[in-house]
TrEMBL record:
Coiled coil spans: 264-291
Family annotation (InterPro entries): TPR-like_helical_dom_sf
Alphabetic keyword roster: Coiled coil, Membrane, Transmembrane, Transmembrane helix
Transmembrane spans: 16-36
Matches recorded under PROSITE patterns: PROKAR_LIPOPROTEIN
Name of the protein described by the UniProt record: Tetratricopeptide repeat protein
Biological source species: Marinibactrum halimedae
Length: 550
């Protein structure tokens, strides 16, 4: 069992000591901090939590893990609810948090003022709750408090934690007290765990519906049902629209039950985005802009992402660039880099990706940077990144791009081994088969022609995309079948291929069939439309590549 007291509670009343002097000084510093905070802009605050996965006896059990989960979530919920209702603070989304970095690095990256960290240690009867506050201004934890609470009755546990936070951390009173009893809270966190882990059968959702209707005054239970509905809208199934309709009707009922509630307003925003009702979502966003406790950065990025999906590429990019208030979060970089890739903004993509990897060194940021290096012909730098990524597991696009980078550096043997790895993991596409044939041709291997035949067979046996028509034409050209190659190329020209892509492949094909005039014309047009010169420099195009005005 724990000792049941905090360090401050061990000090005897009436005795003055060096320790008590330190405590008085610490309280004075904390008080000054909160006094200054009260007279400045709202503090950008993020709440993170962790729970101890072993109890004092170093044993684990299903019941123990469940207790830790529930207790940790209660503490996290209490902290977030208090922050949302504190006029001196703005709650920042946890989506952007990355484990493994120092708090100072996280604060700098996210542009946040406070990190509130809670940790929960439970045994059979009690949970020790430890809370600390890190501030970017001091680059240190200015507060560390802990206390032990019984967890047999979760209502008691929840209210004790709430009071402890308000008393020890000087936050504004939130009025966030649960009216629910222990059994209701245990049921709530049991269902919440299922929602968080996407364990949502129709039967479980029906149970949550009953639970929500039986606890109409418990907003957590009401929002939980909405989360369950919205989780089902992530499916591509035909039932998606039915779940979205349920979510829309339900969130409007919630709005009537909890008017002017920030969390409901945020929920309405997300539902309207899912419905692609940009106008309604804009109104929600405008209302949330007047709520001090909600960070709208992530919400705005979600809206821009939706508009991108709806085809407003250039408008969304322009709006993102001109925005003065959006923070450079992981989502921000991802959206910006994705649009620069789609728009062929190569200089901007390289600049964005370099900055992105610097502050968010993740799989996806490294992938975009490797792609940017490839666009600029810096294949050795791209290979270095791709080789880092392949160590994290198989990803088709990473392996394909690694094989291409190895090919363009003349390392054909390595490129062939990479293609072999793709074939071991997935069924080959027309593009994979064409890459095989071209690497083998560069190595002067006789098997090359058999792969060009496979490309043609694949295209004739499957419903192919626009780009596949160029693969088919190129395979015919490699086989010396000039007439068939030009017929397939003409079919590709009637498709919706980007002009620069069509000119690039036309250069390849006319180079192979020996049509110099057409090869040079398409090569010049490809360059004019933004294709970088290195993409035109292949072993079988060298004769005409050297005649281009590069």
């Amino acid at each position: 069992m724990f000792d049941g007291v905090t360090k401050t509670e061990e000090i005897e009343v009436g005795k003055f000591s060096y320790v008590s002097v330190l405590i008085v000084v610490a309280i004075f510093i904390v008080a000054c901090y909160f006094f200054v905070s009260a007279n400045s802009a709202p503090l950008r605050t993020i709440v993170i939590s962790s729970n101890n996965m072993m109890n004092l006896k170093n044993e684990r059990s299903a019941d123990f893990d469940k207790t830790n989960y529930i207790a940790s979530k209660i503490v996290e919920d209490e902290l977030e609810a208090i922050i949302v209702n504190d006029s001196k603070r703005v709650l920042v989304s946890k989506k952007e948090w990355v484990d493994g970095l120092s708090w100072r690095q996280e604060a700098e990256r996210l542009g946040i003022d406070e990190i509130i960290h809670s940790k929960v240690f439970c045994d059979d009867a009690e949970c020790k709750v430890r809370i600390s506050i890190y501030t970017s201004e001091s680059d240190s934890e200015i507060i560390k408090v802990e206390k032990v609470f019984p967890h047999k009755d979760l209502l008691v546990f929840s209210n004790l934690v709430d009071k402890f936070i308000l008393d020890k951390l000087f936050f504004e009173k939130s009025g966030h007290y649960h009216e629910s009893d222990d059994a209701i809270l245990r049921a709530y966190y049991s269902y919440r765990r299922k929602v968080d882990n996407f364990i949502l059968t129709d039967e479980i959702i029906s149970e949550i519906e009953v639970f929500s209707e039986e606890n109409t005054g418990f907003m957590g239970a009401r929002l939980l049902l909405l989360d369950a509905y919205m989780s089902k809208t992530n499916d591509d199934s035909v039932s998606r629209h039915e779940w979205l309709r349920k979510a829309f009707e339900y969130v409007n009922r919630l709005d009537e039950s909890f008017p002017y509630e920030p969390l409901v307003e945020r929920a309405k925003y997300k539902v309207n985005l899912a419905r692609r009702d940009i106008e309604a979502a804009e109104k929600n966003l405008e209302r949330m802009g007047n709520i001090s406790g909600i960070d709208v950065n992530q919400l705005i990025l979600d809206k821009l992402n939706l508009r991108l999906e709806m085809g407003e590429l250039e408008k969304v990019y322009s709006e993102l660039i001109k925005s003065e208030h959006l923070r450079e979060t992981n989502t921000y970089f991802h959206l910006k880099a994705k649009m620069e890739l789609m728009l062929d903004y190569e200089e901007e993509l390289l600049e964005t990706s370099l900055r992105w990897v610097e502050v968010y060194p993740s799989f996806i940021s490294k992938y975009y940077l490797a792609s940017a290096y490839s666009y600029w012909g810096e294949f050795m730098a791209a290979i270095d990144l791709y080789e880092q990524l392949v160590r994290e597991g198989f990803d088709h696009d990473v392996y394909v791009n690694l094989a291409l980078a190895q090919f363009f550096t003349g390392d054909y043997r390595s490129s062939l081994r990479t293609l072999d790895e793709i074939a071991r993991n997935e069924e080959s596409t027309a593009s994979d088969l064409l890459n095989y044939g071209e690497v083998m041709k560069a190595l002067n291997l006789e098997e090359a022609n058999s792969y060009f035949r496979k490309v043609i067979q694949y295209c004739e046996s499957n419903e192919i995309q626009d780009i596949d028509l160029t693969y088919k034409a190129l395979a015919h050209a490699h086989l010396g079948e000039s007439e068939k190659a030009l017929i397939s190329l003409q079919e590709a020209a009637q498709s919706e291929l980007y002009r620069q892509t069509l000119h690039l492949y036309s250069f390849y094909i006319h180079s192979l069939v020996g049509n110099e005039v057409a090869a040079l014309h398409n090569g010049e047009q490809a360059l004019k439309h933004g294709i970088r010169p290195h993409w035109l420099n292949l072993p079988w195009t060298e004769k005409y590549y050297n005649k281009l005005s590069i």
